[in-house]
Specification:
425 residues, six-stranded mixed β-sheet, 22% strand, elongated
Length: 425
């Protein structure tokens, strides 16, 4: 078999907004608006540079059924560049851009092969004008499909190498978004995939990069551009090199235009606001020197110390945030904090206070009995409140993380109020 190489990417979500991110400034807002496009362009650049034999897109090229026209134009320009380089594109449609939603507003070039949503389709895998195997795929037809697509895949016995392209969930449903969680699409198990006799499974839908299995390879490239704070770290695509004996070597390359990152600051050694601002500046400089690319930064304050009461004040944290943002406005390679989260604690031994028969002990006992950081209990309490029922779809924004943080804050604030400011050392 002739050796060859291909690119695997997916979940491009072209034109997608970043979740929950407020306007920070013109230059940052513009960089955010272009981030998904820039990331895809970087993958195309890599494919052309490496002269790959195939370019795989594992679904969700767009972010919604209403395909943003700018996103369509930018996608067209990118695949036309691949056409000029004689690189064929093989793509399935995902739950965010299912087949039923595609419009014929823009005609794709002949190098783009979109798999049918009716049945598994096979395109020949061509290397140096010779067919060495097949590329198989099936698109999502109507969004969040529950059909096990994998059971419909079956490689030809004559294939020297077979590749399956799919948008779906392998194994247990994985948290895929901060807004809509546990959205399982085309659910299947690894055993379903191995029975299909494919040599490589390129799969999309889960935004976390992961190699699920190696014989055969079952690979999620993840999304090439993080869209919210849970999608931290490097995001990109895979270059897969297949040797003449069918062995695969995977190379990951970061392509995201902007990274989401988190920095933790322990306040135990900080004495005043000047120390806090210097520590924030230090964390930013470390990221700037190490990553050399724009970063949207979540800052988490932890520990116990003299600054706890300031850290607990929302207006103070907003002031620190604004000052830190001002330092990076106008920079092309910005390290831009977008939120400062307080997880600090007062200098109080809560476990010892729980043992005392006083107002604080009674408060903590009542807290333990009703909440004690149990998200299930918190949701049950909220469900009974009339205010919660009026939230409607906005209730989806109350993630487990948000509720846990609120519960912890209630525990600490209640104790602090009852003990009085002067009792805290």
């Amino acid at each position: 078999m002739q050796p060859f190489r291909f690119i695997q990417c997916g979940d491009l979500h072209l034109g997608a907004p970043f979740h929950y991110l407020k306007s920070i400034g013109k230059s940052v807002d513009q960089a955010v608006a272009l981030a998904t496009y820039r990331s895809f362009e970087a993958i195309v650049d890599w494919a052309i540079e490496e002269r790959v034999q195939a370019f795989l897109i594992t679904g969700d090229a767009y972010n919604s059924k209403d395909h943003n026209l700018e996103a369509q134009v930018r996608f067209l320009r990118a695949v036309e560049r691949l056409a000029e380089a004689r690189i064929p594109v093989y793509m399935v449609q995902g739950n965010h851009d299912p087949a039923e939603s595609w419009r014929a507003q823009i005609t794709l070039p002949e190098n783009v092969h979109v798999f049918s949503s009716k049945q598994v389709q096979r395109f020949p895998l061509m290397v140096n004008n010779l067919e060495i195997g097949g590329i198989y795929g099936m698109s999502c037809g109507e969004g969040n499909e529950t059909t096990n697509f994998a059971k419909q895949y079956k490689a030809f016995e004559s294939d020297d190498f077979s590749i399956a392209v799919m948008h779906g969930t392998v194994g247990a449903a994985t948290e895929n978004s901060e807004v809509k969680i546990n959205t399982s699409v085309g659910p299947c198990n690894v055993s379903d995939l191995t029975e299909a006799a494919m040599d490589y499974w390129a799969i999309g839908h889960i935004h976390k990069r992961q190699i699920v299995n190696e014989e055969p390879y079952v690979v999620y490239a993840g999304n090439p551009q993080g869209l919210h704070k849970k999608e931290r770290g490097p995001k990109g695509a895979y270059l897969v090199s297949v040797s003449n004996n069918g062995h695969c070597e995977l190379e990951f390359k970061e392509t995201c235009a902007i990274r989401f990152e988190r920095a933790t600051i322990d306040i135990s050694s900080l004495k005043n606001e000047a120390d806090m601002m210097e520590m924030i500046r230090h964390k930013k400089d470390m990221l700037r020197n190490n990553l050399k690319k724009p970063v949207l930064l979540e800052i988490v304050l932890t520990g116990t110390g003299a600054l706890h009461r300031l850290c607990a004040q929302e207006d103070v944290r907003q002031m620190w945030l604004a000052d830190s943002q001002e330092e990076d406005k106008g920079r092309s390679v910005f390290i831009m904090p977008y939120v400062i989260v307080d997880e600090t604690s007062p200098a109080i031994d809560l476990e010892e206070r729980r043992k005392l028969s006083d107002m604080v002990g009674d408060y903590l006992s009542a807290y333990d009995e009703t909440i004690h950081h149990d998200v299930t209990n918190i949701r049950a309490i909220l469900a009974e409140r009339p205010e919660f029922k009026r939230l409607g779809r906005y209730a989806d924004f109350l993630s487990d993380e948000v509720l846990s943080r609120a519960a912890r804050r209630a525990e600490i604030e209640g104790v602090t109020k009852l003990m009085g400011a002067n009792d805290e050392d």
